[in-house]
Protein backbone atom coordinates (compact mmCIF):
# COMPACT_ATOMS: atom_id res chain seq x y z
CA UNK A 1 0.00 0.00 0.00
CA UNK A 2 2.87 2.38 0.75
CA UNK A 3 4.40 1.82 -2.68
CA UNK A 4 1.06 2.45 -4.43
CA UNK A 5 1.87 6.16 -4.81
CA UNK A 6 5.25 5.49 -6.46
CA UNK A 7 5.33 5.62 -10.24
CA UNK A 8 5.20 2.28 -12.01
CA UNK A 9 4.56 1.51 -15.67
CA UNK A 10 2.92 -1.52 -17.24
CA UNK A 11 2.72 -2.67 -20.84
CA UNK A 12 -0.92 -3.57 -21.59
CA UNK A 13 -3.34 -3.47 -24.53
CA UNK A 14 -6.10 -0.89 -24.66
CA UNK A 15 -9.39 -2.22 -26.02
CA UNK A 16 -11.35 0.09 -28.32
CA UNK A 17 -15.07 -0.01 -29.10
CA UNK A 18 -14.83 -2.35 -32.07
CA UNK A 19 -12.56 -4.71 -30.10
CA UNK A 20 -9.42 -3.37 -31.78
CA UNK A 21 -6.48 -3.28 -29.40
CA UNK A 22 -3.58 -0.87 -29.14
CA UNK A 23 -0.43 -1.62 -27.16
CA UNK A 24 0.06 1.11 -24.57
CA UNK A 25 2.32 1.93 -21.67
CA UNK A 26 0.14 2.51 -18.60
CA UNK A 27 1.98 4.67 -16.06
CA UNK A 28 0.42 4.91 -12.60
CA UNK A 29 1.48 7.22 -9.77
CA UNK A 30 -0.29 8.83 -6.83
CA UNK A 31 -0.92 11.99 -8.87
CA UNK A 32 -2.07 10.68 -12.22
CA UNK A 33 -2.52 7.84 -14.67
CA UNK A 34 -0.78 8.19 -18.03
CA UNK A 35 -1.55 6.19 -21.14
CA UNK A 36 1.08 6.39 -23.87
CA UNK A 37 0.80 4.41 -27.10
CA UNK A 38 3.66 2.08 -27.91
CA UNK A 39 4.45 2.81 -31.53
CA UNK A 40 4.59 -0.28 -33.67
CA UNK A 41 5.06 0.36 -37.39
CA UNK A 42 3.04 -2.64 -38.61
CA UNK A 43 0.08 -2.16 -36.26
CA UNK A 44 -0.18 1.59 -36.80
CA UNK A 45 -0.53 1.22 -40.58
CA UNK A 46 -3.04 -1.64 -40.32
CA UNK A 47 -5.89 0.29 -38.71
CA UNK A 48 -7.09 3.86 -38.73
CA UNK A 49 -7.25 4.08 -34.95
CA UNK A 50 -4.45 6.38 -33.86
CA UNK A 51 -4.18 6.33 -30.07
CA UNK A 52 -3.22 9.67 -28.53
CA UNK A 53 -1.47 9.95 -25.17
CA UNK A 54 -3.92 10.44 -22.28
CA UNK A 55 -3.18 11.83 -18.83
CA UNK A 56 -5.84 11.46 -16.12
CA UNK A 57 -5.45 13.33 -12.84
CA UNK A 58 -6.02 11.08 -9.82
CA UNK A 59 -8.70 13.51 -8.57
CA UNK A 60 -10.77 12.56 -11.65
CA UNK A 61 -10.40 8.78 -11.22
CA UNK A 62 -13.65 7.15 -10.08
CA UNK A 63 -13.23 3.37 -10.17
CA UNK A 64 -11.01 0.53 -11.27
CA UNK A 65 -12.67 -2.87 -11.57
CA UNK A 66 -11.66 -6.29 -12.83
CA UNK A 67 -14.00 -6.85 -15.78
CA UNK A 68 -13.18 -10.47 -16.56
CA UNK A 69 -10.51 -13.04 -15.88
CA UNK A 70 -10.65 -15.85 -18.42
CA UNK A 71 -7.40 -17.59 -17.55
CA UNK A 72 -4.04 -16.85 -15.91
CA UNK A 73 -2.85 -15.57 -19.27
CA UNK A 74 -5.77 -13.21 -20.00
CA UNK A 75 -7.73 -10.66 -17.96
CA UNK A 76 -9.52 -7.35 -18.61
CA UNK A 77 -10.05 -4.36 -16.31
CA UNK A 78 -12.12 -1.19 -16.59
CA UNK A 79 -10.87 2.24 -15.53
CA UNK A 80 -13.60 4.85 -14.95
CA UNK A 81 -12.84 8.57 -14.81
CA UNK A 82 -14.65 11.92 -15.03
CA UNK A 83 -14.21 13.91 -18.23
CA UNK A 84 -16.26 17.05 -18.95
CA UNK A 85 -19.08 16.03 -16.57
CA UNK A 86 -19.29 12.54 -18.16
CA UNK A 87 -17.99 9.25 -16.84
CA UNK A 88 -15.66 7.64 -19.36
CA UNK A 89 -14.59 4.00 -19.33
CA UNK A 90 -11.33 2.61 -20.65
CA UNK A 91 -10.74 -1.13 -20.98
CA UNK A 92 -7.32 -2.78 -20.86
CA UNK A 93 -6.17 -6.38 -21.22
CA UNK A 94 -3.03 -8.28 -20.30
CA UNK A 95 -2.05 -11.32 -18.26
CA UNK A 96 -4.01 -11.81 -15.03
CA UNK A 97 -1.07 -11.13 -12.69
CA UNK A 98 -0.37 -7.74 -14.27
CA UNK A 99 -4.05 -6.77 -14.32
CA UNK A 100 -4.52 -7.74 -10.66
CA UNK A 101 -1.47 -5.66 -9.68
CA UNK A 102 -2.81 -2.64 -11.60
CA UNK A 103 -6.31 -2.93 -10.08
CA UNK A 104 -4.85 -3.20 -6.55
CA UNK A 105 -2.51 -0.23 -7.10
CA UNK A 106 -5.23 2.05 -8.50
CA UNK A 107 -7.73 1.04 -5.80
CA UNK A 108 -5.19 1.81 -3.05
CA UNK A 109 -4.74 5.26 -4.60
CA UNK A 110 -8.53 5.75 -4.83
CA UNK A 111 -9.04 4.73 -1.19
CA UNK A 112 -6.27 7.00 0.08
CA UNK A 113 -7.69 10.08 -1.66
CA UNK A 114 -11.10 11.58 -1.02
CA UNK A 115 -12.00 12.96 -4.45
CA UNK A 116 -15.41 14.48 -5.16
CA UNK A 117 -15.52 12.78 -8.57
CA UNK A 118 -15.27 9.34 -6.93
CA UNK A 119 -17.84 10.21 -4.24
CA UNK A 120 -20.31 11.45 -6.88
CA UNK A 121 -19.73 8.37 -9.04
CA UNK A 122 -20.31 5.97 -6.13
CA UNK A 123 -23.45 7.89 -5.07
CA UNK A 124 -24.83 7.75 -8.62
CA UNK A 125 -24.01 4.04 -8.87
CA UNK A 126 -25.79 3.39 -5.55
CA UNK A 127 -28.88 5.36 -6.71
CA UNK A 128 -29.03 3.32 -9.91
CA UNK A 129 -28.71 0.08 -7.95
CA UNK A 130 -31.46 1.05 -5.48
CA UNK A 131 -33.73 2.15 -8.34
CA UNK A 132 -33.19 -1.19 -10.06
CA UNK A 133 -33.91 -3.24 -6.92
CA UNK A 134 -36.95 -1.16 -5.96
CA UNK A 135 -38.35 -1.59 -9.47
CA UNK A 136 -37.94 -5.38 -9.39
CA UNK A 137 -39.44 -5.47 -5.88
CA UNK A 138 -42.53 -3.54 -7.08
CA UNK A 139 -42.85 -5.91 -10.02
CA UNK A 140 -42.79 -8.95 -7.70
CA UNK A 141 -45.25 -7.28 -5.33
CA UNK A 142 -47.74 -6.64 -8.15
CA UNK A 143 -47.52 -10.19 -9.46
CA UNK A 144 -48.00 -11.52 -5.90
CA UNK A 145 -51.23 -9.54 -5.45
CA UNK A 146 -52.92 -10.94 -8.54
From TrEMBL:
Q: What coarse category fits the chief subcellular location reported for this protein? A: membrane
Location of the protein in the cell: Cell membrane; Cytoplasm, Perinuclear region; Early endosome membrane; Endoplasmic reticulum membrane
UniProt topology in membrane? Peripheral membrane protein
Query: Which terms in the GO cellular component ontology are assigned?
Result: early endosome membrane; endoplasmic reticulum membrane; Golgi membrane; late endosome membrane; lysosomal membrane; mitochondrial outer membrane; nucleus; perinuclear region of cytoplasm
Q: Which UniProt keywords apply?
A: Cell membrane, Cytoplasm, Endoplasmic reticulum, Endosome, Golgi apparatus, Lysosome, Membrane, Mitochondrion, Mitochondrion outer membrane, Nucleus
- Provide the coiled-coil residue spans: none
Give the GO molecular function terms.
enzyme-substrate adaptor activity; phosphatidylinositol-4,5-bisphosphate binding
The SIN1-type PH domain sits at 6-111
TM regions (residue ranges): none
Q: Which GO BP terms sit in this record?
A: TORC2 signaling
Reply yes or no: does the keyword rRNA-binding apply: no
Q: What family is reported?
A: Belongs to the SIN1 family.
Give the protein's recorded name. Target of rapamycin complex 2 subunit MAPKAP1
